[in-house]
Amino acid sequence: MRQYQLSESRIRRVLRNPERKEVGIAPGTIAVMQVIGAKKNQKEIWVMYQITNSKLKVPRRSPAYSGTLRGRQNSKLKKIKIISAWRYPGRSPIGKPLPIPDDILEELNKIICSDI
Which residue of 41, 53, 57, 87 pairs with 76 in a disulfide if CB–CB is 3.0 to 4.6 A? Predict the structure, then answer.
């Protein structure tokens, strides 16, 4: 995030209000984007994420246990796992995958498969 000068709140904003949503380059991922900058100097912020299921774990001593979450302890919740965020200079073609080197695609596949 430092390399592309992106903050956590900016990434959340892109996730909540994307201008475009496409299939991610890694299997099982989604990529969303927002356009930033002036009309002559447009850039895009891309965020690639994956939706996973996770079990809710609430300790018995927490205040949430006695209230609303008591009956939902074993339920599965959807969780968003952010894989990558980057700036793209210019405008990317709509619906076409971006040219990404094969070695980087292999590295992304290893990261995603090891987390599953």
Answer: 53
**Which residues lie closer than 8 Å to 3 by C-beta, 6 or more apart?**
none
CATH number at residue 102: 3.30.1450
User: Is residue 3, in this structure, part of any structural domain at all?
Assistant: no
Q: Please give the model's pTM, rounded to 2 decimal places.
A: 0.66
Inside any domain, residue 66: no
Residue by residue, pLDDT tens for the chain (116 residues) are 677 788 899 999 999 999 999 988 888 889 999 999 888 889 999 999 998 877 666 555 555 445 555 555 555 677 888 888 888 888 888 877 666 778 877 887 887 777 65
Give which of 44, 52, 1 is closest to 22, Cα–Cα. Answer: 44
Q: Establish if 76 belongs to a structural domain.
A: no
Tokens of 87: 């700036």
Structural domain range at position 21: 8-52+81-115
